[in-house]
Amino acid sequence: xxxxxxxxxxxxxxxxxxxxxxxxxxxxxxxxxxxxxxxxxxxxxxxxxxxxxxxxxxxxxxxxxxxxxxxxxxxxxxxxxxxxxxxxxxxxxxxxxxxxxxxxxxxxxxxxxxxxxxxxxxxxxxxxxxxxxxxxxxxxxxxxxxxxxxxxxxxxxxxxxxxxxxxxxxxxxxxxxxxxxxxxxxxxxxxxxxxxxxxxxxxxxxxxxxxxxxxxxxxxxxxxxxxxxxxxxxxxxxxxxxxxxxxxxxxxxxxxxxxxxxxxxxxxxxxxxxxxxxxxxxxxxxxxxxxxxxxxxxxxxxxxxxxxxxxxxxxxxxxxxxxxxxxxxxxxxxxxx
Length: 337
Known about the structure:
By secondary structure, the chain is α+β, with helices and mostly antiparallel strands. The protein folds into two domains: about 10-155 and about 305-335, Porin chaperone SurA, peptide-binding domain (Triger factor/SurA peptide-binding fold, Orthogonal Bundle); about 175-290, Chitinase A, domain 3 (Roll), CATH 3.10.50. Helix content is about 45%, strand content about 20%. The chain has helices at about 10-15, 50-55, 60-90, 95-110, 115-125, 130-145, 155-165, 190-205, 210-220, 245-250, 300-325; strands at about 25, 30-35, 35-40, 45, 170-175, 175-185, 230-235, 260-270, 275-290, 295, 330-335. The strands form four sheets. Strands 7-6-9-8 form a four-stranded antiparallel beta sheet.
């Protein structure tokens, strides 16, 4: 069964903490007994109760559980293989180290509140001893993975340049613009003609030499009025939801100011989608700054590439190591149809 990289971060500790529950609900509402064996590594078993508890803790739906269960089983198997290899090497973690980590988590995760800590464990059906065991498992797994860790210093300049040439599309940047706005929206149900009349007068004042920023502070209803209408960020076209604003903004050159134009305002709907609100406003935009699209230079992204390659090498080394460990261990995985 193939492994998925970096799948342990979001649920690594959960896999060591979970205990069986009454039943496991997967897709199609099939109930699987909690003590059904999902996997076995030497003498250690993984039950479907453990897998379900881990996924439930992440608020997975039944369909998500069905889809992600193999990934979670793989993760648990890899952790047990790491512990097996750790023990085979005759290594051990002092109890004092586990106790130190236990107390540290009590402080950082529960603010030293032992009652809260016990209540959380009780809600998970877990004893303090079992929690300590989960800490031990996590430490062993991280230690065994760290022995295959690669640093960016291990990556040659030639490999960085080769990666950059083959993956230029990953370093392409969109055109971005920093906008300032003056917005006229109805206060007492004024029609569009009145709003447009107000906006045209302000645009004429700008043409006559008045500063855009001063007028933006004095006129209209922009939420950025106190900042002279400044959005304050560089924005790409895909980040602007309004089609009218997007088209007008990206027709401007740096320093240009648009003519007044109508915008149909958007709102978030109860279902979370964004659509037209039925309200209108009139906008005047200024392109304060424009950054053209392009490809980031190698010097700018070299460290980023070094880290990416190091992560790939590390993941490959970890997969190879786990495959070798699995070859020396008894592993059986029992996934539902």
